[in-house]
Design brief:
The chain is of the alpha/beta class. The chain has 28 helices and 15 strands. Helix 25 packs across helix 27 and helix 26 crosses helix 27. The longest helix is centred in the N-terminal third of the chain and has 28 residues.
Length: 627
């Protein structure tokens, strides 16, 4: 069984083509193939099948499509499609799809290049590219799938072509690659890595005037369309050609390469990762469709990432901050995908784990260095040397570095790229005010319209429209938190026999509403637990913010003032305000308005749980009289 994806989708079994004719089943099959050996949720499949507007019955219909797809593929192939919560998983060996074979060729090419076998590396890359037939996913009737996954595949193909050109140029086959590079540069005139390779090939072929003319045309285009000068790498190629330092050289006879490959490698001017044309990583994860309610924040973030300026020696840095589950990661990734065109040297991504499972820069740097082309055995052991090498490799390049779920500035500082054209995008529950030069974007809960939009995108606008009052009751409990709304929508989607009113009553009548806001491995309580665990403690003489939070839960308070907390705890108003501000900083209390700090429905439910956990026994305790 062989699944062909790098062109029109088809399935071959024993030289016979298995035809999946139903359009939506083809979408399901493509989604499974593109996520081979990984679970893809029913929600994500539904987004692809109905182009971001699934009906209320989407989950049940997707199950039907999967059943029919299994029938179409036959017994052997259908056994590979496994049901795994919250969706399905397609088990696939590396050589059972052209995409798997493509990835294997790329991996072997990288291994050969690390060993200095550029000839073998180029051959592997040529075999990888030969697997492509036509436009991938062109016959898949899903614009959403083509936008998300098709662009990724095209980027992967371009990067592989660039890797092959690097190998060919290192082997001094400059004249041979000119025609193909000319065609690609015409198609991608702003892709500076390709322009640089074409300039090198032209210059080394004795066509310096054409190379210099190409640079001037590219520079004018960059200034006109992006408002930016060429990158340091491209300017360096231009400088070499101007100074005639890169004159064409005659390649050695083929038999010499065959007899002494070590000599060919030794004569290379620099290691692969030291050459001007280095790998361009593309590591951004995919994300759900963006919400119109976030369009303003998304536009501000995109504008900063494309036009933001800082003093010389610094890197433009945006920090998206807010409480857990508010959608920081989704917004940051939407912005990162939107500005990929300006990060022409690639995108690096790392999930730093948050406060619960913090990942240190020491653990991240080796991966980043390897992704930038440094062989694993050449990565320095000393942390300071790793940081220096990382800054050197990123200096003057246009990279976008995305650091998700940072718990503190200490995690971020060693991963700031070298100054030049790069951008840094960080998400964190903390504001990271001590990160020099960072521009914060505080993300708040969704308003009612945004909450309805999100719920409707999950269970269908028709189902929401049929019970608008009940939908608003559910969303009141969710308090505008996208995570809570997604969980509520998932529960309703999984239970089509529930009315929204039934679920609203379960939420409002439950003694512990957070028990209802769980779906699979998602839950609101773990987010709140993480916020509570990160709560800043006050000085010994002050008031413990955790005790204040529990007191508010015991009293069922919707809001409180610092003067009232001072009375409750017999402390000064300044001490009370410090404790309340610590709760605001931990996202366990709303910012003060009119002198009062407010708790939304989720925070009130969680505060009651914390009060029960510390077992406030005496009903006449001052806590119970908070107001």
């Amino acid at each position: 069984m062989n699944f062909l994806l790098l062109g029109p989708l088809s399935v071959r079994s024993n030289a016979r083509e298995v035809h999946v004719s139903a359009p939506r089943q083809r979408v399901v099959l493509a989604a499974l193939l593109l996520n081979a050996n990984r679970v893809i949720s029913v929600d994500r499949i539904a987004e692809y099948v109905w182009d971001g507007a699934p009906p209320p019955s989407a989950a049940a219909t997707v199950r039907t499509y999967v059943m029919r797809l299994r029938q179409s593929l036959g017994e052997h192939a259908s056994a590979r499609i496994l049901t795994r919560a919250p969706g399905y998983l397609l088990e696939l060996g590396e050589h059972e799809s052209d995409l798997g074979q493509f990835t294997a060729h790329r991996r072997r090419a990288a291994e050969l290049a690390e060993r200095g076998d550029l000839e073998g590396s180029s051959a592997e890359l040529a075999q990888a590219l030969a697997l492509w037939r036509e436009e991938p996913l062109a016959d898949i009737p899903s614009q959403t799938l083509r936008d998300v996954e098709g662009r990724y595949l095209q980027e992967l193909r371009l990067q592989t072509m660039e890797m092959r050109f690097d190998a060919e140029l290192a082997l001094l086959r400059h004249a041979e690659v000119v025609p193909e590079l000319v065609r690609l540069v015409r198609k991608h005139p702003l892709r500076e890595a390709l322009v640089g390779k074409l300039m090198l090939a032209l210059g080394r072929s004795g066509r310096q005037s054409e190379a210099l003319d190409l640079y001037q045309r590219t520079r004018a285009l960059l200034v006109e369309q992006l408002g930016a000068e060429p990158s340091t790498d491209l300017r360096e190629v231009h400088r070499h050609i101007l100074s005639a330092h890169d004159r064409p050289r005659a390649p050695e006879p083929p038999e010499q390469h065959a007899k002494a490959p070590e000599a060919a490698v030794a004569s290379a001017p620099a290691a692969a990762w030291e050459r001007p044309c280095r790998p361009s990583p593309a590591q951004l994860p995919s994300v759900p469709l963006p919400l119109s309610a976030r369009s303003g924040a998304l536009a501000r973030l995109q504008h900063f990432l494309t036009t933001g300026t800082v003093p010389a020696g610094m890197v433009p840095t945006a920090v998206v901050t807010g409480r857990g589950g508010v959608g920081k990661s989704a917004l940051a990734l939407h912005a990162a995908h939107a500005v990929r065109g300006s990060s022409v040297h690639g995108q690096l991504y790392a999930d730093l784990g948050g406060a619960a499972r913090p990942l240190t820069a020491r653990a991240v740097l080796p991966r980043f260095l390897a992704d930038l082309g440094v062989p694993r055995d050449e990565i320095p052991e000393e942390e300071s040397e790793r940081e220096s090498l990382y800054r050197s490799l990123t200096a003057g390049r246009r990279l976008l570095v995305v650091l998700d779920n940072a718990s503190g500035t200490a995690q971020v500082r060693p991963l700031i790229p070298g100054s030049g054209g790069s951008r840094l995008l960080v998400t964190s529950r903390r504001r990271l005010a001590d990160l020099e030069g960072a521009s914060p974007l505080v993300l708040g809960p969704l308003d009612e319209a945004g909450s309805l939009e999100l719920l409707g995108s999950i269970i269908g606008p028709a189902r929401v429209g049929a019970e608008p009052r009940s939908a608003r009751s559910v969303l009141t409990v969710c308090a505008g938190l996208p995570l809570a709304i997604r969980i509520a929508g998932t529960r309703l989607l999984e239970r089509p026999h529930w009315t929204i009113g039934h679920f609203a009553r379960r939420l409002t009548d439950a003694p512990r509403p957070l028990d209802e806001l769980c779906a699979g491995d998602l839950g609101v309580r773990p987010c709140l637990d993480a916020d509570h665990a990160g709560l800043r403690r006050t000085a010994p003489a002050g008031v413990d913010p955790a005790e204040v939070f529990a007191a508010l839960g015991a009293a069922g308070s919707r809001s409180v003032s610092s003067s009232r907390v001072a009375v409750m705890f017999g402390c000064s108003e300044a001490q009370a305000e410090e404790a309340l501000d610590a709760l605001v900083e931990a996202h366990l209390l709303g910012e003060p308005a009119g002198g009062r700090y407010r708790l939304d429905a989720l925070l009130r439910a969680y505060a009651r749980e914390r009060a029960q956990a510390v077992a406030v026994r005496q009903h006449d305790h001052p806590y119970m009289r908070a107001g």
